[in-house]
Amino acid sequence: MGLIEAVAAYLDAEGRLESRVLPREAGFLYATESMRLTTRLMQLASWLLLQRAVNEGEISRDNARSEKEKVKFSATPSQRGGPGYDELPLTLRTFIDKGDRLFERVMQLDALERGNLPDVTPGVANGVADQLSRLKAAFARAE
């Protein structure tokens, strides 16, 4: 939520001023990327709020999964770049990078929540994957 607030404050003040002095192509890209960023952050916030509701016992996991299916992530990091991207203000590009990292982390959490554990190569020690497998097994027995 802090990232959302920081992005909103930037776009409403400093970002607005910075966008006015950009060349035409970069100005168009600024508008596009700022819209993508705010959309993606709101989608991530929706996902995270659903997860918090489950953790606090407000809704069931099944209900949350059903609601999460309605959150379609658009403007993914793979759509980044293009002509004029390097001319965007550094602050906006930094917020975009933070949003991309948050997106990747939420996608990893979503995969884990759905039971999609990362593949572990036999013979390679991976303490985190081992612990996740044990947690999954323990929770599967508890349900």
From TrEMBL:
Biased composition (Basic and acidic residues): 59-72
Pfam families from the UniProt entry: DUF1465
Top-level taxonomic group: Bacteria
Matches recorded under InterPro entries: AraC-like_sf, DUF1465
Region Disordered: start-end pairs: 59-86
Gene3D superfamilies assigned: Protein of unknown function DUF1465
Record's protein name: DUF1465 family protein
